[in-house]
Amino acid sequence: MTLKTRLLGVLTAVATVAAAALAFATPASAATLTQVTGFGNNPTNLQMHLYVPDRVASRPGILLALHYCTGTGPAFYSGTQYASLADRYGFIVIYPSATRSSKCWDVASPQALRRGGGSDPVGLVSMIDYVKQRYSADPDRVFATGTSSGAMMTNVMLGDYPDVFAAGASFAGVPFACFATGGSSEWNSQCANGQSIKTAQQWGDLVRGAYPGYSGRRPRMQIWHGTSDDTLRYPNFGEQVKQWTNVHGLSQTPTYTDSPQSGYTRTRYGSSGPMAPVEAISMQGVTHNIPVDAAQVIRFFGLDGTAPPTTPPPTTPPPTTPPPTTPPPTTPPPTTPPPTTPPPTTPPPTTTPPPSAGACGVTYTVNAWNNGLTASVRITNTGTTAVNGWALTFTLPGGQTITGGWNAAYSPTSGAVTARNVSYNGTIAPNTSVEIGFQATHTGDAGKPTAFALNGATCSIA
């Protein structure tokens, strides 16, 4: 399958904007999308289209809006509400276009993954510099957002140019450098399939390595992903959260959790306010055709008139050991049953002896609220041989019922539960771990199971 066809499904997504994205009448406007040429250094021959509203704010903000694979800047302009919001709030929107045959952004080559290295990021920064100079734009209010390939490039731009961007919003993307291929290909199947799992420190180091020596403020990040994304799979959501919390020197334990609408779980890190350093929205049952809630993006950026945060950057260096690895929660139960993760194509082998007692370890972390909770489970193979195909058994406290999960198939949903591997994480090599998790309701007891067994062998509990 080609890169173009893998991401083609997102074409319909940009026309499916969340119903609540605009709660106001769009004013009449004579402003039009205009192509700009000769905007500066442009090593990959990108095209630039610009939307300048009729009424531009004094010292306007700049939004770089990055399209999906097979798309163009004008298509992203037509399919999203950023221009309408620009009419209301007076910021300027850049709609660039990739010109390679796939119409995907370069997020894989070594040139793209370092500051000033060349490729698409250099041309995109040239567009921003052009707008700053021509329209006296505010250099402290420059933002990036994108969908699919554009979301990947949003992560890349914030990593390469932390001094240029104040914040970004990624819809169905992957972490910075996750798609790296050394330039041999545009497509990285391991990353796309959610199999590129690293510690928060490792992800953060990749970002810091893009601009060695930089010690200034890091851009805030808003991350959106659907649990049923089968193109850029859902584990990439948690890996992005790991990366950007680490970049900001934060724990992965949320400081705030809510459900902004049915089926969505929003977590914030480092602050409970609406402009937290990292905000992540998990969308239950949503595929790669992800809806773009432009109004929530603009709210997070502060382009709606909200004052940006004034807190200084952290004075302590990033952690040298990984912070707690609690993945973000999924979502409260939707009104219709969520799709379930299919069981592994083959059951755990019965001919291989189970690991000996003590050859596995489990770390189980709960984040509870009202009558709901999420549980993050890390399973570690502490033995000397690989586990090929696994089943983790445990008993939930009374009143807890699983409503959805990730990285494992769970059955039954209460009482004595078995979590089985899915197709991409069936092997646990010695001294390595897999991370799984689920969301559940509870009737008052949000406690933890007291015992775990992996393929029948008792595990130690951290």
Task: Please outline what is shown here.
The chain has 462 residues and is α/β, with parallel strands linked by helices. It has 9 helices and 22 strands.
Describe the secondary structure blueprint for this structure:
Layout: H1 3-6, E1 33-36, E2 47-51, E3 62-66, H2 73-79, H3 82-89, E4 92-97, H4 119-135, E5 142-147, H5 149-160, E6 167-171, H6 189-192, H7 200-210, E7 220-226, H8 235-247, E8 256-258, E9 264-269, E10 278-283, H9 294-301, E11 360-369, E12 372-381, E13 387-388, E14 391-395, E15 401-406, E16 409-411, E17 416-420, E18 427-428, E19 433-441, E20 452-454, E21 457-458, E22 460-461
Parallel strand pairs: 3-4, 3-5, 5-6, 6-7, 7-10, 11-22
Antiparallel strand pairs: 1-2, 2-4, 8-9, 9-10, 11-12, 12-19, 13-18, 14-17, 14-20, 15-19, 16-17, 20-21
Helix pairs in contact: 7-8
Describe this structure in words.
This protein has 462 residues and is α/β, with parallel strands linked by helices. The protein has 9 helices and 22 strands. The chain has helices at residues 3-6, 73-79, 82-89, 119-135, 149-160, 189-192, 200-210, 235-247, 294-301, and strands at residues 33-36, 47-51, 62-66, 92-97, 142-147, 167-171, 220-226, 256-258, 264-269, 278-283, 360-369, 372-381, 387-388, 391-395, 401-406, 409-411, 416-420, 427-428, 433-441, 452-454, 457-458, 460-461. The chain has a 10-stranded mixed beta sheet with strand order 1-2-4-3-5-6-7-10-9-8, with helices on both faces. A 5-stranded mixed beta sheet has the order 15-19-12-11-22, with no helix packed on it. Helix 7 (200-210) packs across helix 8 (235-247). The longest helix has 17 residues, at 119-135. The radius of gyration is 22 Å and the shape is globular. The two termini are 42 Å apart. Residues 8-28 and 309-353 have low confidence and may be disordered.
